[in-house]
Specification:
With 433 residues, the chain is an all-alpha fold. The chain has one domain: Orthogonal Bundle (Proton glutamate symport protein). The chain is globular, with a radius of gyration of 22 Å. It starts with a helix and ends in an 18-residue tail after the last helix.
């Protein structure tokens, strides 16, 4: 029997994770294991990851410009843009509040031993230095917003500056609606061919996804195992519980009551997206798969997918906002820094803002989070305490981020009058045809 690609990906994920845990259990600390991780598993995983990331910039550029040009009517673009950003912000604030409630209830930082704290700070001092250097280069002021408008869009693309690429793509799409159709058509045809070419590359990359996903998971589990997660269990449980509530409760409630979409069908359909997001820890690397599945399998129109999903991969960071809020308050508890309710609300607000500015790549939130720590009087060096489990939590929060993008695309499509097949609808909700 021929298995679907997401089933093969799940098998690769499961086998890679199992072999990694076993390798760590029996050979943890062995130089030969580290040699295999560095020279076999990581390169195989990186081939898959880099192939997916390779198409992101041209795909975002072509998809967004085409999506905006496809609207034709700038009023429609404004309406859909307003709905998209409103849902991004609402869901991100909800995620932050969930994190705030959980961290104050569980208090994960209260039980961390001084010995473990010292050992973690020592173990991850090199990673800490890199992140502190990155944080020093970030200025959270008006220049952060001005830099969204690129002086040189080609340089912005080469630097991987997604917000700048998105801005230029939006402006280009708007410009194509303002010039005569005969003049715009050749360039629209070029953009369409570019987007189709990127999809062809994605289809090639997805054929090696099961092996690539397995290799990525093996690298993480073989190196860290579950020992460190157990030592930081209350912190990890707090973050993962919040992310699970956002993913399975908040999104399901929204799909049922505001969209009329069956959440069971929704999550079953996007299994491949969630597995790709979890294994790559990158919203950007997952974007090609997200676009393909959302349009072809969920049936969301191309113009909406092309607009909402590229924006979401950079702007909509629900899981990241929750993670940042929990982490800052966890480290405040560890270092005995008392934060008032007002200070905690400021942390939540800053988590939302910095989440929006986070790069959609593994570990992209760490430098910005150091800034938030320092703002509320927590030593920035404290971030070393969570670096060991950050890759696992990055995988979890990226999954929530990407699922939120797809939920938003479905919601925007429904609000624009798109009707879904009967099998996709939630039975108690009657939708007008």
């Amino acid at each position: 029997m021929k298995r679907s690609n997401h089933v093969k990906m799940f098998l690769g994920f499961a086998i890679g994770g199992f072999l990694g845990i076993m390798a760590n259990l029996f050979f943890g600390g062995n130089p030969n294991l580290e040699f295999i991780i560095k020279n076999v598993a990581e390169p195989v995983g990186q081939i898959f990851l880099r192939t997916m990331i390779m198409v992101v910039i041209p795909m975002v550029f072509a998809s967004l410009a085409l999506g905006v040009a496809g609207f034709g009517d700038l009023k429609k673009l404004g309406r859909i843009g307003a709905k998209t950003f409103a849902m991004f912000m609402i869901s991100t604030f909800m995620a932050s509040i969930i994190g705030l409630l959980l961290v104050n209830t569980i208090k994960p930082g209260a039980g961390l031993s001084p010995e473990l704290k010292e050992r973690l700070m020592s173990t991850y001092k090199e990673d800490l230095k890199k992140n502190l250097d990155k944080a020093d280069k970030v200025k959270f002021d008006i220049s952060l917003f001005l830099n969204i408008i690129p002086k040189n869009p080609i340089k912005a693309a080469a630097d991987g500056d997604m917000l700048a690429v998105i801005f230029f793509s939006l402006m280009l799409g708007i410009a194509l609606t303002r010039i005569h159709r005969d003049k715009a058509q050749p360039f629209i045809a070029f953009l369409s061919a570019l987007a189709e070419s990127m999809i062809a590359i994605i289809n090639i990359a997805l054929k090696m996804a099961p092996v690539g996903v397995g290799a990525l998971i093996f690298s993480v589990t073989a190196r860290f195992g579950i020992d460190l997660i157990i030592k930081l269990i209350w912190y990890v449980m707090t973050v993962v519980s919040g992310l699970a509530i956002q993913l399975f409760v908040v999104y399901s409630v929204y799909l049922i009551f505001f969209v009329g979409y069956n959440p069971l069908h929704f999550f079953k359909t996007i299994e491949g997206i969630l597995l790709t997001a979890f294994s790559t820890s990158s919203s950007n690397a997952t974007l090609p798969t997200t676009l393909k599945v959302t349009e072809e399998e969920l049936g969301i129109p191309n113009d909406i997918c092309s607009f909402v999903l590229p924006l979401g991969s950079t702007v909509n960071m629900n899981g990241t906002a929750l993670f940042e809020g929990v982490t800052v308050l966890f480290l405040a508890q560890v270092f005995g820094v008392e934060l008032s309710l007002g200070s905690q609300i400021i942390v939540t607000f800053m988590a939302v803002l910095t989440a929006v500015g986070t790069a959609g790549v593994p570990g992209g939130s760490i430098p910005l989070m150091i800034m938030v720590l320092q703002m509320v009087g927590v030593p920035g060096e404290g971030i070393a305490l969570i670096l060991g489990v950050d890759r696992f939590l990055d995988m979890c929060r990226t999954t929530v981020n990407v699922a939120g993008d797809v939920v938003t695309a479905v919601a925007v499509a429904r609000s624009e009058g798109v009707t879904f097949p009967l099998r996709n609808r939630f039975p108690p909700v009657s939708l007008p045809e």
